[in-house]
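Postdoc handover notes: sequence design on the structure in folder B. Input tokens:
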């Protein structure tokens, strides 16, 4: 029997479904979104089984996203102030599965708290790494720094400095594609799962990239970015709910 994959769901600025019983709650604050275009063939082999690169006008993207995680909490319990609050920087790719669900797949997640790193690796099978990190504001400029500690490659670094600008009243189709992601594809408990999320519509600002010195993208097994990112955005942040994982069936084959 031949199965036909469902066409990708539309890109929507608002989450398609509420999450009434969250697995996790958290805040994502002071986000810097940097993106470079890539050929889908360059990333296809790095994605979870059962997903393919999601594309916009024939290109896919690698995202370098730096932010402050704020008060991670389990279920409906209050968020944790210390162990649940830390800087994070992730390298992510864009995915779609056979059910048409668009999402992201993480190649690495640098975080500054060892306990959440260990839990993320053990429980969610996510590629968390422990790093020395900071997010600093000086005037109208934000600087995000990280230096990898464990497991490696030790010493992989990132330093992003940007200056947020005007509010984006109507994001472009590409800006929606890069930011309005309502789930994550990842290996989970021996299989591949889709973990949905829900949050208010992103408050986005255009941003001027002052400098970017990083080798996290190459450390994640991707080609090192050539030139400046094609998109640089900032957001003050949103409160987030993550739902329980659902298993996708994978990409059907004849």
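Designed sequence:
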């Amino acid at each position: 029997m031949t199965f036909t994959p469902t066409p990708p769901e539309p890109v929507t600025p608002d989450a398609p479904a509420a999450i009434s019983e969250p697995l996790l709650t958290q805040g994502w604050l002071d986000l810097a979104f940097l993106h470079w275009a890539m050929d889908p063939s360059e990333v296809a082999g790095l994605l979870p089984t059962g997903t393919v690169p999601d594309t916009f006008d024939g290109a896919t993207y690698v995202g370098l996203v730096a932010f402050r995680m704020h008060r991670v909490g389990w279920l409906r319990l209050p968020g944790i102030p210390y162990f649940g609050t830390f800087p994070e920087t992730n390298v992510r790719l864009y995915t779609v599965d056979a059910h048409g669900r668009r999402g992201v797949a993480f190649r690495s997640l640098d975080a500054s708290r060892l306990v959440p790193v260990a839990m993320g690796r053990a429980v969610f099978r996510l590629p968390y790494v422990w790093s020395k990190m900071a997010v600093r504001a000086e005037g109208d400029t934000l600087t995000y720094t990280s230096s990898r500690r464990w497991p490696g490659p030790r010493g992989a670094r990132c330093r992003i400095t940007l200056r947020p600008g005007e509010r984006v009243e109507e994001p472009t189709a590409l800006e929606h594609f890069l930011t309005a992601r309502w789930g994550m594809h990842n290996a989970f408990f021996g299989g591949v799962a889709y973990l949905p999320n829900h949050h208010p519509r992103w408050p986005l600002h255009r941003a001027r990239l002052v400098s970017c010195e990083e080798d996290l993208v190459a450390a994640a097994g991707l080609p090192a970015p050539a030139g400046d990112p094609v998109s640089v955005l900032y957001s003050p942040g949103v409160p987030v709910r993550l739902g329980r994982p659902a298993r996708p069936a994978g990409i059907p084959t004849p």
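Context for whoever picks this up: The chain has one domain: 24-242. Don't rerun without checking with the PI first.
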